[in-house]
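HOLO CASE FILE
Compound: pyridoxal-5'-phosphate
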Amino acid sequence: MVSAAGLSQRVAHLSPSATLSISAVAKAMQAEGLDVCSLSAGEPDFETPEHIRAAAVRALEEGKTRYGPAAGIPALRQAVADKLQQENGLNFSRDQILISNGGKQTLFNLAMVLLDPGDEVILPVPYWVSYPEIVTLAGAKVVRVPTEEAQGFKLTAAQLRQALTPHTKVLILNSPANPTGAVYHRHELEALAEVILSVPDLYVICDEIYEKLVYGEAHHISLGSLSPEVFQRTILSSGFAKAYAMTGWRIGYLAGPKPIVDAAINLQSHSTSNVCTFAQYGALEALTSPLSAASIEKMRQEFSQRRDLMVQGIRALPGVTCPQPEGAFYVFFNIRQTGLSSVEFCQRLLKEQQVAAVPGVAFGADHCIRLSYATDRATIEKGLHRLHQFVCSL
Ligand SMILES: *Cc1c(COP(=O)(O)O)cnc(C)c1O
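Model generated. Tokens follow.
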């Protein structure tokens, strides 16, 4: 099959990132002077902390402007290894770390070095928008496993066991999760680990980019910290975007078994080479400065209060349900009773009440809507009020 424009089969079925495109429409409406409440953002609304920006400016002024090693500057790779050891209980050495252009490139690199046509990748649904596209681009098959709202949208050991086939190569686990805010607890991870270890050669890609954003009683646990056996099977994908409000900097990292990391370095050396040199010095500051902890905690506490505000507002909507999100900055709620598809719901909500939200179909769940609380409380309150009017008008 050759497409009319001469495009490859690889990209013929690729859809644009739904989250990025809704934000773009909302921004365009705002630019026209409309009073849009944007609750669709996938990025923190805070500035990158001052000490991190200053470190990058300093690096730029010191002339850190040339090509560096494709894998990242050694000091940053070491700082990531130290962080993973101290905070996550993961024993990676410096040469098991690759610095990439965001978590997205990390995941893309991984798909390219791990997957062949015919391989299966298990994706718990709802999933982050880019996972299926990245897996499909690598030619592998996505195996979608729906999770239950009553289980907090978390994959159970029984569901994982059922989805396994002789072709299963990778499981992607995202905790805290986008779009649901789900955080896997220790006993849930232990149950999954038992199934994972029962299959030889199954790798788990742990996307832990929201690890710093957990609320209430919840705390983040890295799957790989459970035992040395599980550690051998885990590949970590993370980055600076969400924890440090550094989305535009494009810095993520991969940590995993050395042969996989070496292959990813090799691949990246032929695609993007090193991440922007002076940006890496900002990331190094983020990991090593004693000032960072307080900046992160301030953002986390603000997110925590907004979460409570938003969950309360959504639960007050007639016919709408949502589990308590324990991490990230999203609320994922069920609109089945409205009888609308998620796209109809979001299009009408934007048109009739000027509120931007993301349809759940983008995450594989057409009966749900994602709202983001990565915006100020006044916008959240106004958005919730309009959402209430909208749902009541249906
Ligand atoms: C934001 C995000 C990423 C990666 O973001 P980058 O900006 O590329 O670092 C990865 N996974 C999930 C689930 C995300 O929400």
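CASE NOTES: Residues 4-47+293-393 form a domain with the Aspartate Aminotransferase, domain 1 fold (CATH 3.90.1150.10). The mean pLDDT is 95.
CLOSED: yes
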